[in-house]
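In pairs, describe these two lines:
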Amino acid sequence: MNYFVIGDEDTVLGFSLVGTRGMVAANQSEAQSAIQKALEQKEYGIIIITQDVANMIRPTVDRYLFSETFPLIVEIPNRLTQGKSKDLRALVNEAIGVAL
């Protein structure tokens, strides 16, 4: 099972240094193209995507985040979010629209 990363240039470059393939996405069109490419390749079992890019294509990302299908999509913070990521409660609130 291989990884694929989608994010800003620094994130993709960093992951490429350890052998992970990926694509830079600076806008919604590039993000959609990148995720489609990753989904078409059955060799990618895990797609790593930065939060800012995931927000550009939220419906597509959520379809895989909240299902049992492969590939697994993992959102990570990028350097601009200063390492802050959403907690599980915030993710559930966004997914179902109910505050817990």
